[in-house]
Design brief:
With 1083 residues, the protein is of the alpha+beta class. It has a five-stranded mixed sheet, with no helix packed on it. It has a five-stranded mixed sheet with strand order 67-69-70-72-71. It is flat, with a radius of gyration of 55 Å.
C-alpha cells in the first residue's frame, strides 16, 4: 500500500514537473510578422515559392504574387481570354518557370514572359477536363498528373493531349459523399510508378493506371508531406499523424502521434532544421523535432501582438532561406524569420505573472548562477531564472519588497543584495530567506531616502549616491561612514546633484552629476583630492549618464551631449558627437566588447562605435530593439558575454555575433517601365515590350519617347524598407546615383545612342552586395539621322553630281566644236596682235632707256643746285654774326638737313630707276626724335596757320630707314596742314596704338576729311581730290610703297567730309622687325 502511494505521488510529481521541464527547454516564444494589407483576400489556401524567390499566395478570391514589398494580384477577367478561370485557388505547381494554377473551374497557366494568366492550353482529349477542379498537381517528363476534388486521378499527355482517368476507389469504403474521397497528394516514384494518397485510400499505380498496391486509411487524410525518399507523413481530420512507408510493390501505414485530438491536421511542412510544423484546424501550430519529439505548441494570443494571428492553419511553406510562412484562416499571412530581429527583446506581459514585472528597466546585477536581478520603475525588483526562463517578482505591491521603484542594485554578499530605491532608502534583501530590511535616513546614516546609485570598491567599501544629497562611503568592516564633499572649481559651491559613480582599475572614483559635470576622486591616505571636468574645460556636456573603463584602461563617459574619451596625459577629454558620425548624442549606456568596439545605448537606438576607426553601425526598432529610447546606466555584460541594455519597453539581450551585419545577396529585378508616366506592358500601343519587363535585358526607344521611368526591386522579405539602391546610366553619367529606398530611375530627352543602365542595392542590413544588373538601352535616332537615310542622301547627291557632270560634259563637247572654229579665226587675229605687241615692246624698251638716261641727267642737274645751296648756306655764318641773329642757326641747320635728305632721295630715285625697287638702310630709330625733326621742318606753316600740334611722348622705337620714315611722317603732317580747311581750332595729334606684334603710329587732324569714294582711291598715283590744294598726287602713293618695303602698311580713316582724318603707319615692333631682318640676312 505504501509502495502504491509513493508511486502515485511520484507520478503526480512528474506530471507537474513535465510542463516546467518542457518550458525550460522550449519556453522562448516565437515572434511572427503579420501581413494582410494588400492581399486580395485574407484566407490563403495554398503557398508556393517560385524559382526566382517570389511568394505566390492562392486565396479564396484571387492569386497574389508577393515580392516583400508589394502584392501583384491576378483575378478572373470578363473576356475569358486572360485571367484566372476562377478566383478560388486550389493548387499551385511551378513548371519550367511558368505556374500551373488549380481553380474551382479548372486549370489556368501563368506565363512568366508575358506576366499574364490564361486558361490552361489543353489539346485534343484534354478539352474534356478543362473545367475539372484539381487540388493536386504533379508533372514528370511530358505527363501531367492531376488529382481532382471528387472524381479521381487524371493522366494527361502534353504532346498528344491524350487523357487517362482513374476513378476514386469508393467501392471499398463506406462514405455517403464520394466528393470526400479526393486526391490529397501525388508522388512520382519513378518512370513507371506513382503514389496517390486519397482521403481514405493510398495506392501505388503504374503509368497505365493499374493498381500495384493499395491500403485503406482508418481516418480521413487531409494533407501530406514527404518525410524521406521512401516515406511520407500524412495528417488526418481527427488530429493524428501517420507515416506511410513505401516498398517496391507495397505500402505500410503507421500511426505516429495523436497531435491534436479532435482538431484536424490541415497542413504539414518541415523547416530548415528538419523540424516538423503541423498546422491544425482551430488548434494552432504544433512543432516536433525530426524524431517526432514535441518541441512547442504555438497558438494565437490576444496578449502577444507577435503571436500567430489565427489557430486554423490552412497552409505552410518553408522557403529556401529557412523562413516559415503560415496561412491562418481569414488572418492573412504570418512569417517566422529567426533572423528578422537581431536583438532578443524581453518585455512585460501583463497576462503572465512569471514575466518581467514592468516595462521600465533601470538596472541589473548578475549572481553566481548566471541569473539576473532586475530593478524596474514601478514593478519593484525581478529575479530572472534563466534556466526556467521565469521571473520572480518582489515588490511593495506584493508586500515582498520595500519599494516598487528600484534605481540601483548591488550584490554585497553571496546571499545579499542592496537595492537603492526612490523615497524608500536602501532595501537589503537576503536572497536565501527572501526577507528584506530597510536602511533609511531615519534609522541609519543615510542623508536621503532616494538612492540613485551604489558601488562596492576594491576595499569592499560601499559608495552610496544620495539624490541631491551628495555621496557617502560606508565601510562594512568598521561599520563607519564618511561624507564626501564635492566642490565646483568654477564657483566653489557644494555639489549634491549626483547621478553616477564608478571605480576604475587604478582605484580612482569617478562621480557623474546631473548638471555640473564629472569629478575624479583620488585617495591620498585618509583624504580625497578631486579633479573637476565640465563644459568649460573639456567635457561635452555636464549631464553624466554613464562611466566605464575599457579593456585598454581607457575611461569613457557618456553624457547627454556626446561620448567623451579620457586622455590621462593631458587630463582632458576628447569629444565624439553627431558631427563625428554618431547617430545620437544622448549616450545612456556603454558596453566594451573587448574587440575595439563600444556598444552605446542612446535615445535613438543602439550604436556600435569602432574606437580605432570611428566607424559606426546603427541599430533601430526594426532590428528588434525594445524601443528607440534607453535608460541611463541600465546595462550589463553577463558572464556568458551577453550584452543587456534596459529601456522604456523592457530590455534587449544579445551578443556581438547575433547582430553582425549580414552579407547575404539579394536578387535584383526590373519591376516596371513607364513612358510619360504611363505603364508600359507587353505588346501594348507603345510597341516597346514583347515580354514582361522583368524578363528582358534590353530596351529600345524612339527618339521622341523622351520621359522614361524604370522601377526596380531587390527581392527580400526581411526589412525591405532598409534596402538602399543606386544606379547610373553608362554613356550618360559617370557616377552612381545613390537614391536610398527609392528604386526608380528617371531620364528625359536622351540623345540617340547606346546606353547601359547599371543597378545595384544593399541587403536589408544596408551592406552593399555584389548583385549588379545591367539593362541595355537603345535610343533610335529620327529617320534623318539614321545611317540608311544618310547613305541615301549621299547616293542622291552623287547621282545629282553625276547628272550635272554628264550634262556639263555634253555642253562642253558641244561648245568645243564651236570654239575650235573660233580658235582658227582668232589665231590669225592673235598672230597679227602678237606682231603689234613685239613692235610695241621694242618701242617701250627704247623709251625705258631714254627714261633712265633722263633720270640720271635730272639727278645730276638737281644735285648741282643742291650743292650750291648747301655751299652758300655754309658761307652765311662767315658773313653774319649768329649771336646777333639767334634764329638763324636753326634755319641754317634745317637747310642743311633738307639738302642732305633731298640728296639721298635723289640718289634713291636714281637707284629705283636703275633697279626698280627701294633698298632700305634699316636701323633702330627713336620715333620722337624723327617727329621733332619733322615738326621743325613745318614750324613756319604751323605758326602761320595757327595749328596746334600735339606729339605723344615716349613713343616706341622703329626699326627702319631713317630718311624713308621721315618722308612718311613729313607727308602725313604736310597733308594734315594742306587739308585743314577753315577750322576755327585747327589741331593735329600724333600718337600710337599697341596692337600686339605691331604698332600703329597715327596722325589725327580735325580738317576737311574725305568721303568713302576718296578713301578707296587715296593711294592711287596722280589722284587728287581738292583742286584748290596744290600737289602731284604721288605723295601718298610713295609713302605706301615705303611702308610696304618696311613690312607694314598705311591705313587712312575718315568719318566723312568736314570730320577730319586719321592716317596710320602700321609697322612691326622694332624687336620683331630686327629679328626678321637678321633671319633674312642668314637665309
Amino acid at each position: 500500500m505504501l509502495y502504491k502511494s509513493l508511486l502515485t505521488l511520484f507520478t503526480i510529481f512528474i506530471a507537474l514537473c513535465t510542463p516546467i521541464l518542457v518550458q525550460s527547454q522550449y519556453s522562448e516564444s516565437l515572434n511572427f510578422q503579420h501581413i494582410q494589407e494588400g492581399m486580395s483576400q485574407s484566407s490563403a489556401t495554398v503557398l508556393l515559392e517560385d524559382t526566382f524567390g517570389f511568394i505566390w499566395i492562392g486565396t479564396r478570391n484571387g492569386l497574389n504574387r508577393y515580392d516583400g514589398k508589394d502584392f501583384e494580384i491576378y483575378t478572373k477577367s470578363l473576356d475569358g481570354i486572360t485571367g484566372l478561370k476562377h478566383e478560388y485557388i486550389t493548387a499551385l505547381h511551378e513548371d519550367d518557370q511558368n505556374i500551373i494554377i488549380g481553380t474551382n473551374e479548372g486549370l489556368s497557366l501563368y506565363n512568366r514572359s508575358l506576366n499574364i494568366i490564361t486558361p490552361y492550353p489543353f489539346i485534343n482529349e484534354g478539352q474534356s477536363i478543362k473545367d475539372v477542379v484539381f487540388e493536386t498537381i504533379a508533372k514528370h517528363g511530358e505527363i501531367l498528373w492531376l488529382g481532382s476534388e471528387s472524381i479521381g486521378l487524371y493522366r494527361y499527355e502534353l504532346e498528344t493531349g491524350k487523357v487517362n482517368h482513374f476513378a476514386p476507389p469508393n467501392e471499398y469504403i463506406n462514405i455517403d459523399n464520394p466528393r470526400l474521397n479526393k486526391v490529397v497528394k501525388i508522388n512520382v516514384l519513378d518512370d513507371n510508378r506513382i503514389l496517390v494518397v486519397f482521403t481514405y485510400n493510398t495506392l501505388i499505380l503504374n503509368y497505365e493506371m493499374e493498381i500495384i498496391s493499395e491500403i485503406l486509411q482508418t481516418e480521413a487524410i487531409i494533407t501530406g508531406i514527404n518525410s524521406s525518399e521512401n516515406s511520407l507523413l500524412i495528417g488526418s481530420g481527427s488530429g493524428s499523424l501517420f507515416k506511410l512507408d513505401i516498398a517496391e510493390n507495397s505500402i505500410s501505414i503507421t500511426k505516429e502521434k495523436e497531435v491534436s485530438p479532435g482538431f484536424g491536421i490541415r497542413s504539414l511542412e518541415k523547416n530548415i532544421d528538419n523540424e516538423l510544423w503541423i498546422g491544425t484546424e482551430n488548434n494552432g501550430l504544433h512543432v516536433y523535432n525530426e524524431n517526432l519529439d514535441f518541441i512547442r505548441h504555438i497558438e494565437y494570443s490576444v496578449t502577444r501582438p507577435n503571436s500567430i494571428s489565427g489557430n486554423s492553419i490552412w497552409a505552410l511553406l518553408c522557403t529556401r532561406d529557412g523562413t516559415m510562412w503560415i496561412a491562418p484562416y481569414k488572418s492573412g499571412l504570418n512569417i517566422y524569420d529567426k533572423e528578422y530581429y537581431k536583438f532578443k527583446h524581453i518585455n512585460s506581459d501583463p497576462f503572465n505573472p512569471k514575466s518581467l514585472s514592468n516595462k521600465l528597466v533601470n538596472c541589473f546585477t548578475e549572481d553566481d548562477k548566471g541569473n539576473l536581478w532586475i530593478g524596474t520603475d514601478g514593478g519593484g525588483i525581478d529575479y530572472w531564472d534563466r534556466s526556467l526562463d521565469i521571473f520572480e517578482n518582489y515588490s511593495l505591491s506584493k508586500k515582498t519588497f520595500a519599494s516598487n521603484v528600484v534605481l540601483s542594485i548591488l550584490q554585497t554578499k553571496d546571499d545579499e543584495i542592496w537595492a537603492g530605491t526612490w523615497t524608500n532608502g536602501i532595501a537589503v534583501l537576503n536572497t536565501n530567506t527572501k526577507k528584506t530590511s530597510v536602511l533609511t535616513s531615519k534609522n541609519s546614516f543615510l542623508k536621503s531616502n532616494i538612492i540613485i546609485d551604489l558601488l562596492k570598491d576594491k576595499k569592499e567599501r560601499i559608495w552610496i549616491v544620495n539624490y541631491f544629497s551628495g555621496v557617502q562611503v560606508y565601510d562594512p568592516k568598521t561599520k563607519t561612514h564618511q561624507d564626501i564633499t564635492l566642490k565646483s572649481e568654477i564657483d566653489g559651491s557644494i555639489i549634491n546633484s549626483i547621478y553616477q559613480i564608478f571605480e576604475d582599475n587604478q582605484g580612482n572614483i569617478w562621480i557623474g552629476t546631473l548638471n555640473t559635470g564629472l569629478f575624479k576622486l583620488t585617495e591620498k591616505g585618509d583624504e580625497w583630492s578631486s579633479d573637476h571636468y565640465h563644459t568649460k574645460n573639456s567635457i561635452s556636456n555636464n549631464f553624466i549618464n554613464v562611466i566605464i573603463q575599457d579593456n585598454e584602461d581607457t575611461i569613457w563617459v557618456g553624457t547627454q551631449g556626446g561620448l567623451n574619451k579620457y586622455n590621462p596625459e593631458t587630463n582632458s577629454f576628447l569629444v565624439i558627437a553627431k558631427s563625428d558620425g554618431l547617430k545620437n548624442d544622448a549616450i545612456k549606456g556603454i558596453i566594451d566588447d573587448q574587440k575595439g568596439h563600444l556598444w552605446l545605448s542612446t535615445e535613438d537606438g543602439i550604436i556600435r562605435y569602432d574606437t580605432n576607426t570611428g566607424e559606426t553601425i546603427n541599430y533601430d526598432v526594426g532590428d528588434g530593439l525594445q524601443s528607440k529610447e534607453f535608460i541611463a546606466s541600465s546595462s550589463i555584460t553577463t558572464k556568458k558575454g551577453e550584452y543587456i541594455f534596459g529601456g522604456i519597453n523592457g530590455f534587449n539581450i544579445f551578443t556581438a555575433s547575433d547582430v553582425e551585419k549580414r552579407k547575404d545577396t539579394l536578387t535584383l529585378f526590373v519591376s516596371g517601365l513607364k513612358l510619360f508616366n504611363q505603364p508600359v506592358l507587353p505588346n501594348d500601343d507603345f510597341g516597346i515590350l514583347e515580354r514582361d519587363i522583368s524578363q528582358v535585358d534590353s530596351l529600345t526607344f524612339n527618339y521622341n519617347q523622351s520621359v522614361i521611368n524604370i522601377d526596380f526591386k531587390a527581392l527580400t522579405f526581411r526589412h525591405p524598407e532598409s534596402v538602399n539602391y543606386a544606379f547610373y546610366l553608362e554613356g550618360f553619367e559617370k557616377d552612381w546615383n545613390y537614391v536610398g529606398n527609392n528604386p526608380t530611375a528617371t531620364y528625359t530627352n536622351l540623345n540617340p545612342g547606346e546606353y547601359i543602365l547599371k543597378i545595384k542595392s544593399t541587403n536589408s542590413d544596408g551592406v552593399w552586395v555584389d548583385n549588379e544588373i545591367d539593362l541595355h538601352i537603345t535610343v533610335t535616332p529620327p529617320y534623318w539621322q539614321t545611317w540608311w537615310f544618310k547613305t541615301l542622301m549621299v547616293a542622291l547627291v552623287l547621282l545629282l553630281f553625276y547628272i550635272a557632270q554628264h550634262v556639263k560634259l555634253l555642253n562642253i563637247r558641244k561648245n568645243q566644236r564651236r570654239l575650235e572654229l573660233k580658235v582658227d579665226e582668232r589665231t590669225k587675229e592673235l598672230q597679227f596682235q602678237k606682231n603689234k605687241l613685239v613692235e610695241a615692246a621694242d618701242n617701250l624698251a627704247s623709251k625705258n632707256e631714254e627714261i633712265q638716261r633722263f633720270t640720271y641727267a635730272v639727278s645730276h642737274d638737281l644735285k648741282s643746285p643742291l650743292g650750291n645751296i648747301k655751299g652758300l648756306a655754309s658761307l652765311i655764318p662767315l658773313e653774319v654774326s649768329l649771336e646777333d641773329h639767334p634764329g638763324l642757326a636753326e634755319y641754317l641747320s634745317l637747310i642743311d638737313v633738307s639738302c642732305n635728305n633731298m640728296n639721298e632721295l635723289i640718289s634713291d630715285i636714281t637707284e629705283i630707276a636703275r633697279l626698280g625697287k627701294i633698298d632700305n638702310k634699316n636701323e633702330l630709330l627713336k620715333t620722337n626724335e624723327l617727329l621733332d625733326l619733322s615738326r621743325n621742318l613745318i614750324k613756319g606753316k604751323l605758326k602761320q596757320l595757327n595749328i596746334e600740334l600735339s606729339i605723344t611722348e615716349n613713343m616706341p622705337d622703329i626699326f627702319g630707314d631713317r630718311n624713308r620714315i621721315i618722308q612718311v611722317f613729313g607727308n602725313f603732317l604736310d597733308n594734315a596742314i594742306k587739308y585743314m580747311g577753315n577750322q576755327e581750332n585747327p589741331k593735329i595729334i600724333v600718337t600710337y596704338e599697341d596692337n600686339g606684334d605691331t604698332n600703329s603710329f597715327m596722325v589725327i587732324d580735325n580738317g576737311s576729311g574725305m568721303n568713302e569714294g576718296a578713301l578707296k582711291k587715296l593711294f592711287t598715283p596722280f589722284e587728287r581730290f581738292h583742286d584748290n590744294v596744290k600737289g602731284t598726287g604721288l605723295g601718298l602713293y610713295m609713302v605706301k610703297q615705303i611702308a610696304n618695303s618696311h613690312g607694314g602698311t598705311i591705313i587712312a580713316e575718315s568719318e566723312g567730309e568736314g570730320k577730319g582724318a586719321t592716317f596710320k603707319l602700321v609697322l612691326p615692333k622694332a624687336k620683331i622687325a630686327a629679328q626678321n631682318a637678321r633671319k633674312s640676312l642668314i637665309s
